[in-house]
Amino acid sequence: MKYTVPLFLLIFSVLTACQQRADQHLIADEAFRELVHQQFTNQKELAKGRDSVLFSVFDQNLTTAETEGLEFLYAFMPLSDLAMNDGEYNLAQVRTALEAKTAFEWGKEIPEDVFLHFVLPYRINNEYTDTARQVFFRELKDRISGMSMEQAALEVNHWCHEKVNYKSTDERTSGPLTTVRTAFGRCGEESTFTTAALRSVCIPARQVYTPRWAHTDDNHAWVEVWINGQWHFIGACEPEPALDMAWFAEPVKRAMMTHTFVYGQYQGSEEVLEKTQLFTRLNLLSNYTNTKNLPVKVLAADGKPATNVKVEYSLYNYAEFYPIATKYTDAGGICEATTGFGDLIIVASKDGLFDQKIAAAKSEDTLMLQLGRLKIPLQDEEFTLTPPAKQELKPASQADVELNNRRLLTEDSIRNAYIASFIDSVEVVKLASEKGIESPLLWDYVSRSRGNWPQIVEFISGLSDADRETGMQLLAGISEKDLHDIQAATLNDHLNAFNSFPAKESYNDNSIINSYILSPRIGREYVTKWRSYIQQYFSATQTELFRDNPADIVGWISSNIVLDTIGNYYNVPLSPEGMLQLKRA
What's the chain's average pLDDT? Predict the structure, then answer.
């Protein structure tokens, strides 16, 4: 018996220590934890229309870290995510992020604020969110096991290149899993995907972009990774032998501004371009090139300092003066921004008054503007605007470049093998014959759906003879990007809901019916099962009143939906059903 007490105490001590570790704060900073909790409380009230769907998850037996992680996500969540995700989805995001934090040695070295703002958030930009964090973590965990943080970041980018290559697409940003399924994406999609992949394995990452280049028409987006206390850049899905190497390494030294959006009220050392209760926008230009501070002072017509004047730091690109930064003057009429050594047009405006001047590349003096009535000159004006000078880069080791190039070829072959697994034209012609559909038309839809072809084939295979024409018109009403991520169940939902509400007899023009009634596509949103939801949301009586007088729909929306110009800061269109639940848009 004399050994029983010490053994019991040992077991008790171990269990207590484990419990304490499991119940540690994720947010150790008490002041910031209170800020997050207060903001969470505000968001919970705002989203009370989806209270159970979003917040019943807190009724589970959560650890302190899980609770604080959830509160952080909800506290700064854009309307789109409050409307379109649920509590279980958000809890899975927190749990996988915490699992990754303990799975890799570098997890314990990441500062609290860096983890919260650049690992935990699943949203990168304006993509439609998915379960990429869980999928990528499972696939990458063993691949990078035993690597240093830097090696792992480079390896993740090689993995990304195996999955995705560059191709221009439309403005709707695909979710990371859709980008993988499609095997291509524009730079904004590649960088969203790569950032999501890095975060999935607890490597802090953020999407960075230059809103416009100074030396040529265009813009670009890439990724920064946090490695051992420093931020470094990589080209998304464009792996190089080392960090801070990319095809844009030379052009970015001529940039006049680089931005990133940060989830939440970030309190780091970088220059803040904009800060709200929900997000922070940073200027990261000093990470890339020589910079200067450009102060602007605005006077009113009477010569006194003008307060709260909108000042746009504008760069000539694509035949317009594009604002790369927007500031507002303080009580002294002054604002300032960090930029590069190139010419800018500075435009000040308030209450219909206006002034503008060129800020010369080499000047660091305060630029003086005075508000007055806009006077449009009767003659042409010429501007000579100079971008920052070209800077030379240190060349990479030829041996490293050659080794990396060999890896790129291998990765191309892996991606191409995946693409070769897509359904071929022989199978599509066979299906077209079975369904009585023109084979070139069906092949066009199926081939453009890329890796989402099983969903399109499932939808077509299930069409009855009576629904064949309507089903094909449904496909005609969606975009190529919709073909990449739409589900067969969503198409069937629209087909069945359309059939349950025949068009009014006055709408006897098929082109109008197909384009403005049948089509599930409204703008640039992700297509959901909104049609059946809306049909069930309103009573039969109310529905008939709307059908008799469509203008009443506008009145109902104005009376029942709150217009929120702040909450949806990533500008992701809300689904119609999510908007009806939130009563907010």
Answer: 94
For 46, the token pair is 């705002």
Q: What is the pLDDT of residue 508?
A: 76
Q: State whether residue 480 is helix, strand or coil.
A: helix
| Residue for token pair 């209760």 | 277
Closest listed residue to residue 350, CA positions, set 295, 296, 299:
299
Q: Collapsing DSSP states into helix, strand and coil, what is residue 335? A: strand
Instruction: Please check whether residue 241 is in contact with residue 405, taking contact to mean a CB–CB distance below 8 angstroms.
Output: no
User: 349, 309 in Cβ contact below 8 A?
Assistant: yes
Asked whether 565 and 572 are in contact (CB, 8 A), the reply is: no
Three-state secondary-structure class, residue 58: helix
The values of phi and psi at residue 5, to 5°, are -65, -50
Of 191-195, 287-291, 396-400, the least confident: 396-400
CB atoms closer than 10 angstroms to residue 146: 9
pLDDT, tens digit (0-9, with 9 covering 90-100), for 358-381? 999 888 899 999 999 877 677 788
Provide the b/e sequence for 244-257 (b: ≥16 CB within 10 Å): ebbebbebbbbbbb
Overall pTM > 0.85: yes
Q: Which amino acid is at 31?
A: A
DSSP H or E run through 222: strand 220-227
The Cα 84–Cα 62 span in angstroms is 23
Q: Determine the Cα–Cα distance for residues 475 and 458; give it in Å rounded to an integer.
A: 13
What is the per-residue burial (b if ≥16 Cβ within 10 Å, else e) of 84-117?
bbebebbbebbbbbbebbeebebbeebeeebbbb
Domains detected in the chain: 112-134+149-289 (3.10.620), 291-373 (2.60.40.1120), 420-537 (no CATH)
By the 10 Å C-beta count (0-12 exposed, 13-18 middle, 19+ buried), 479 is classed as middle
Segment 221-238, tens digit of pLDDT = 999 999 999 999 999 999
